[in-house]
Amino acid sequence: MGRMSATSLDPAIAARLKRTPDGLVPAVAQQYDTGEVLMLGWMDDEALHRTLTTGRCTYWSRSRGEYWVKGDTSGHVQHVKSVALDCDGDTVLVKVDQVGPACHTGDRTCFDSGLLLPAPGQ
């Protein structure tokens, strides 16, 4: 957990977070104007601090063990419009302006091809 010790996250915000045992909180990215749920990523304190202060979504990659800024490789940037913590303090909602697809597959959202049950009336 060395990455957790050196963060500049506001202590008042850090105190509100309820993290997983590995120090992470899920972060839902939502398109700010259409309401589309784009993706789910993971943030630790430092990733949240970077997201709050840079205007770009920064996540912690559990598989690679490193920070990644959405769009640095793909060009599919997430410009942060607002950040909110849910009532339990265990999930972050980041409203963004997504440039291009959000999903690494090229789909607009990570949920485009995963429909398990159609909406009522469809």
UniProtKB/TrEMBL annotation:
Pathway: Amino-acid biosynthesis; L-histidine biosynthesis; L-histidine from 5-phospho-alpha-D-ribose 1-diphosphate: step 2/9; Amino-acid biosynthesis; L-histidine biosynthesis; L-histidine from 5-phospho-alpha-D-ribose 1-diphosphate: step 3/9. Its cofactor is Mg(2+); Zn(2+). It is found in: Cytoplasm. Its EC number is 3.5.4.19. It catalyses: 1-(5-phospho-beta-D-ribosyl)-5'-AMP + H2O = 1-(5-phospho-beta-D-ribosyl)-5-[(5-phospho-beta-D-ribosylamino)methylideneamino]imidazole-4-carboxamide; 1-(5-phospho-beta-D-ribosyl)-ATP + H2O = 1-(5-phospho-beta-D-ribosyl)-5'-AMP + diphosphate + H(+). SUPFAM superfamilies: HisI-like (SSF141734). GO terms for biological process: L-histidine biosynthetic process. Mg(2+) binds at residues 86, 88, 90. Residues 39-111 form the Phosphoribosyl-AMP cyclohydrolase domain. Binds 1 Mg(2+) ion per subunit. Binds 1 zinc ion per subunit. The keyword Amino-acid biosynthesis applies. Keywords: Amino-acid biosynthesis, Cytoplasm, Histidine biosynthesis, Hydrolase, Magnesium, Metal-binding, Zinc. Zn(2+) binds at residues 87, 103, 110. It holds the Pfam family PRA-CH. The keyword tRNA-binding does not apply. GO terms for molecular function: magnesium ion binding; phosphoribosyl-AMP cyclohydrolase activity; phosphoribosyl-ATP diphosphatase activity; zinc ion binding. It is an enzyme of class 3 (hydrolase). InterPro entries: PRA-CH, PRib_AMP_CycHydrolase_dom, PRib_AMP_CycHydrolase_sf. Homodimer. In the C-terminal section; belongs to the PRA-PH family. Catalyzes the hydrolysis of the adenine ring of phosphoribosyl-AMP. This is Phosphoribosyl-AMP cyclohydrolase. It comes from Actinacidiphila bryophytorum.
